[in-house]
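not sure who needs this but someone in the group chat was asking about 5-methyltetrahydropteroyltriglutamate--homocysteine methyltransferase from Winmispira thermophila so here u go. i didnt clean anything up, its just raw.
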Amino acid sequence: METHVIGFPRIGARRELKKAVEAYWKGAADRSSLEDTGKRLMEYAWKTQKEAGLSLVTVGDFSYYDHILDMALALSLIPSRFRKEDYPHDLDLSFALARGDRERNIPALDMTKWFDTNYHYIVPELEDSSSIRLAEHTRIEEQVHLARSLGYRVKATLPGPLTFLSLARETGERPRWSFADEVGKAYATLLSRLAPHCEWIQMEEPILATDLSSPQKQAWASIYAQLSDHTERILVACYFGPVGENIELLLSSGVRGIHLDLTREGVEVLSRIPEDRVVSLGVIDGRNVWRTDLEAAARIVEPEVARRGEDKTMLSSSCSLLHVPIDLELETTLPDYIKEWLAFAVQKCRELSLLARHLTNGETGPEWESARKAAEARRRHPEVMIPRVRERVASVTGAQLARSLPFADRKALQQEKLGLPLFPTTTIGSFPQTPEIRKVRARFKRGEISREEYETYMEGEIERVIREQEALGLDVLVHGEPERNDMVEYFAELLPGYCTTTNGWVQSYGTRCVKPPIIYGDVHRSEPMTIRWITYAQSLTSRPVKGMLTGPVTMLKWSFVRDDIPARDVAFQIALALRDEVADLEAQGITVIQIDEPAIREGLPLRRTQWEEYLTWATDAFRLASSGAAPGTQIHTHMCYSDFEDIIEWIARLDADVISIEASRSDMQLLEAFHRFEYPNDIGPGVYDVHSPRIPGIEEMYRLLKKALEVIAPGQLWVNPDCGLKTRAWEEVRPSLTNMVEAARRLRKEYDGGK
C-alpha cells in the first residue's frame, strides 16, 4: 500500500526559508547561499517523509515564494510590464512579480486567498498578448532530478491546469478559457519530461470541490484530452471539500489515480469510482493539528482496501501539510496534557505510516493506544467545557445583534463628536514592527526585563507613533500595536480556551509566517485586553485614536479550531468576549473602535448551497461583538485580500459604520460590486499596497480615489492603506503616507474648498 502526503511545509522548522530569502532581498546573502538553503529544506522534507515510513516522497511542493507563481513562470506567463525588464535570474523575476519592483516602479501581481485557507497565492495575469508555452528549464524538473539522485521514489506535484486557469485573472478582452488549449499543450510537454522519473505525477485540482461553470467543464475536457498519453502516471488530487457531481468529470478524464479529502468528503463517493482506478484516501487532516483518531480512520479505510486491494489503495493526508506547523517536538512550553492531543506535519507523516502498517498486518502497539487515550482525555478535560460560557451563548437574543439606531442617525452623532473632514484619513492599525520592538517583547517574555521596563518602552513607541501620525496629518490615529506579536495570537494569549505555540509557524504568504493559536476549550474573557495601551495613546492627543480588536470570525479562522462543537458556537464565545472589551473601551472614553474581519470571505464554504448558513452566523458573530456599542461610537472593520463582489450584501449586513478594504493591487477592480449594489455605510478602499516595498506617488493614489468616487459618494469615502503597516519599514511608510494624505487634501480642495 503506497503512502504519501499531498505536500509538506517548505518554510523550515525554524523559518529558515524566511530568513534566507529576506537576507537575499537585503543583499546580505547571494543567490548561491539562498539556493543552498532551499536544497537543504527540500532534502529535510524528503528525509522526514522517508524516515516516517512513507513509500513516496512529494517533490515540487517547495517554492521560494509561491507555487502558483512558480507555475506561471514555468508557463512563461509574465505580464508585459515585466517582460521589457532584464532580470539577472528567474528568482529575481519571481520576487519582482510577487512584491513589485520599487526601483523600476512596477506594481506587483495581485495576491489573494487560496480557497478557504489563510494561505495567499500570487494571481497570474492573462493578457490579450499572453502566449503560454513551457519554459526551457523549470524548477520542478530540477527538484525531481535532485530527489531521484538521492535515491527517493518520487511523486511530483503540480498545480492542476484547471485550477491554475480558474484562479488566474484576465486583464484584457480575451477570456481565460480561450487559453485552455495552450495550457493543455504546455502541461503535456511538462508531463512528458517528468514521467520517466516519477512514480506518479500529482495534479492538484481543488477547484473540483467548487461549483464549476460550463466553460470550466469544457476547459477540463480540452486540457485533459491533451494529457491522455500520461493518464497512467496522473494522480488528480481533489481536496478542501467534497467533489460531488464533479466526480463524473474527473472519471471522464481517464486518469489512473484519484485522491479524495475524506476529512471533508463522504465515503459514499468511493463506490462511484471503478475498481480499476487507484484511489488515494486523505484520512489524515492536513488543515488541523489534532491527533488522528486512528481507529475511526481505519474503519473508513478498511472496506475500501478489502474491495479494491492494497495495490489500488493509497493512504495520504487530506491536503498539503503546508497548512500546519512542522514538528511538535520543538514545542517546549505547551502544557503536556495539550501536547498529547496534537500532531504537526512530522507527526502526521508517522500517523499515516502507522495506519498503513495496521491495515497491512494488524499492527497497533503503544502509539496506537496512546492516540486512543489522548482522544479520551481531551473529551473529558475540565477546561474543554465550561457551563457558564455555554449558557451565555445559548441566551443570546436578537436584540443583542443590532445597533440601537440606524446608520444615518449614528453617523450624525459620530460626526458631531469627531468633527472629521471630508475624505478622512486613517491607517489600518499596525505600524512598523522594528527589530528593536521585537527584541524588547522577546526579552520581556524571557523574564530578562521587568514589566515596568517593558511598559515604559512600549509607551515610548506608542508616543512615537502618535507624534508621527500627527506630523503626517492623519485624522483618525492608531496606537501602532507595538505590544502585539500578531493580530490573532495577541488576543489568544489573553483568552482562556486558547493556547499558543513557540515554533508553530505556518506560511501565510511569501516570507510572512504566522503562529496560529489553538482553540482547545470554551473561550471567554477573564480581564481587559487592550485598555492599558489604547487609553494611554488617547491621552497623548486630541485626535481620536482607534481601539483595535480582531473580530470573532478572524479569531476563529486564523486559529486551529476545536472539532468537537460547531464553529458557530466557538465564534459566538469569542464575540461575547469582544463585546465585553468594546464596553470597557467605551467606558474609558474611546469613541472609535475597529473590529477587524479579514477572514469572513475566506471562510465561505466552497459550495454556494452552504453560503447562507455560514454567512448568517458569521455576520451575527460580528454584530454580537459590535452592537453593544453606543450609537455615538464609530465602529470600523477591515477586510483584505479577498473578492467581495458576490457577498457585498452580507458585508453591508455587518452594519459597521466604516469598512476598509484592500483595493490598490487590483486597481480598484474590487469596487465593481458597487456598480450594482448601493453600499449604505462609509468605506475606505485601500490606495497603498502595503505588501510591496514600492512607494506609491500622489498622482497614483489620487487616480485610485477618483476611480473610487465613480461608485462611492464623497461623503462616504475614507482614505487609507490596504492593510496594516507592520511588515513595512519607516523609510517606506513615511513617504507613502505623506503622499496618501496629500492625495486626500487634493480631493478636499475639489469637493469641499479645501476644508
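also The chain has two domains: 2-380, 407-752. if thats useful
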